[in-house]
Design goal:
The complex is a heterodimer of chains A (265) and B (463).
Chain A (H helix, E strand, L loop, with lengths): L5 E7 L3 E8 L2 E9 L4 H16 L6 E7 L11 E2 L2 H12 L5 E5 L4 E6 L5 E7 L7 H11 L3 H9 L12 H13 L4 H23 L5 E4 L6 H11 L13 H15 L3
Parallel strand pairs in A: 1-4, 4-5, 6-9
Antiparallel strand pairs in A: 1-2, 2-3, 6-7, 7-8
Helix pairs in contact in A: 2-8, 3-5, 4-6, 6-7
Chain B lengths: L14 H5 L4 E2 L5 E2 L1 H15 L21 H11 L1 H10 L4 E5 L5 H5 L3 E3 L1 H10 L6 H18 L7 H9 L6 E4 L7 H11 L6 E2 L13 H22 L5 H26 L8 H10 L8 H21 L11 E7 L6 H6 L2 E6 L3 H4 L9 H10 L7 H15 L3 E7 L3 H18 L3 E6 L7 H13 L1
Helix pairs in contact in B: 2-3, 3-13, 4-6, 6-8, 7-8, 8-9, 10-16, 11-12, 11-13, 17-18
Classes of the chains: A alpha/beta (265), B alpha/beta (463).
Amino acid sequence: MSKVTAFAGVDVGSLGTKTVIMAEGEIIGSAIIRTGINTEENGWNGLNAALENAGLTRDDLAYVVATGYGRISAPYANKTVTEITCHAKGAHYIHPQTKTIIDMGGQDCKAIRLDDDGNVADFAMNDKCAAGTGRFLEVMANVFKVSLDELGPLSLSATEVLPVSSTCTVFAESETVSLLARGEKPENIIVGIHHAISKRVGGMFSRVGVQNDVFFSGGVAKNVGMRKALEEALQIKIVEPRKDPQLAGAIGAAVIAESAWKRGR
Amino acid sequence: MAINQDLFHYPEAAKELFIRTEDITFRDGTRVSAEEIWEFLTKEAPVRFPHAFDNGRYNRNRISGDIALPYSLKDEYLSLTFNDRMLKAKQKGIPVAFVQGGQCVDPYYAAGAIALRPASVNQWAACQREGVTFTQAQVLREDDKERASQSISFEVCNTAGYEYIQEGSLPVDMIAPYSCLRCSDVSYSLEAHRHGKRQDVKLFLGDFPMADQKNKEWAVEYFAENIKRLIRSIDELTGRETTEEDLRKEIILHNEGRRLSREIAELWWAPDTPPTNGKDRRAILQMGGMEVHGDPEASLCVLREGKRFIEERVRKGVKGHGLIDKPARIFLCGSCVFPSDYRIEEGGGVIVGTDNHWSNISTLVEETGDPYYNLAKATLSYPYEQNVYERAKWTAEQIRKSRADGVLFMYNWGCNTQSAMARMLCDEIKKLVNVPTLIIEHEFQASQSEQLLNRVSAFVEML
């Protein structure tokens, strides 16, 4: 059997570690694992899981790019690149017409504008406020005693949008508890939370300038309720991704790995 | 408890070349030879100031490592001897003034005083703490910040200065801000003085006329009177009488520093790959303001020698230490804060210029005629203090000269003036030079957050 020349992108985020293995421009393996407290170990575990998924070993890897907040502890990587650049490359790979990315990850939220080649033209980032992050939604899911994955589908059954004014995690949690206490339906509160987040992140998008096509990446992109709320609040149409949007950063890292290896870097 | 600290050591192999370089002559006429500097940096300083020798990735002020660049070592020497030199000056009865508002320091030295901006006062305070590791130094800085946050405002920055002056551990004799629209720091130091214990510290407020002030004769004359008043206030501390000639001589001396700094900048900007790294660029250009080490004559010695080394490096095509070929060039605007040069360089970029103090360093003062008027005219002409359109025009000119590929506007959290100006200035700059811009809010803390550095790295990748 001929030896595969494979490339890996490892995106060590605050909540999830995403890894993609690529060969000849195609994704041949991937893995998403929960990020633990040992950053370096998370990367190794993600890499091993994705290699196993691809049926390969570490010896098959020609080049590895690490991204995400864990990239600073990645001895397995040949190169590190910020997740802003990686999400751009990843979104361009998944949907080449992408001009704007909404990236909602575990601990921050970004608006990224791309040029025709998938390079970053401008970006804005919110890391001061928890609104628009996976962690915020995780706390809210906990209030409703549901899993993070259930929040989106639940919100689609809402009959009205209840206003949730706080986007501070602590105060939003108290506000949600108060709304539940007065007998409001959980789904109406959840849709209110999604709308509150959408409005909050709207400012970032006006700063970079929204252009079609719009791609939604990061773990929160899997939340159908959030996606619907963003489309309504920003009056945009978000493209249907042909790959898992949570993998966008890791895909971008793998694309960069292949390109760097070909350029001899 | 054993502390695992990666410390920088100057290699013995570099000694021979270094000790053949020039002495530093101080304002009081004393000298220190290159050999004495070497001994200090390799034996005494690592024991007294281990935090400064921390070679870890998160020490953004770590030693440059460009051992073939003598001025880099001399800059470290001057930084680490700050407390020793200030205490010596105090023993000789030389008053020290804490100055703010982007002012030049010519009048203070003409009147026989030492003028220190907030960053220098912080450096003085840091040098009072000996034997602390990098982590311990960070914890102490956070404690300073917390103390100042509680007693002044939670937005406060450059905190060591205010609190140490008020506690009396930094023997400053005068607080002298100009009331210009430069930074919110002025109001914080005034508040610190108002509520503080040290009411015996003299207060001087330079009343800075606003709005196209440089073109109004009355404003220049009014501000010249303020400078006279400032010098009289210092004379009250020293008991001497400063003459016009004293001021004129000082202006000529400081102009030499400003000129050298401008010439070095032109040399540094010329090659596609700069001749030094960002830290060493900042160190040498800052010296042109003649304030940074609390001794203009010492700064001049280093500047004169530094220019020759930069010239030689440019002529020979020497690449700056740690830089990649043709790095992405970033011009930094905004408050007095800056991101880690090393992180930018790791990502393939380099900071090529700043607008803040460069505004006054690059403004020469007329040497003939009334020195008070000339100084007032120059001070009121600083581009950084002009309206946003004029400031943008000047900044665009510096961006063109430094051949920057992008502009990073960084303002300190709590710096209300610069935060209000950021977007408008960036938009104007974009119109004039059409380069990408990024605005970042920075929180004054012991170490820069990963989020902040992440944005900067992404901007470098984008460029």
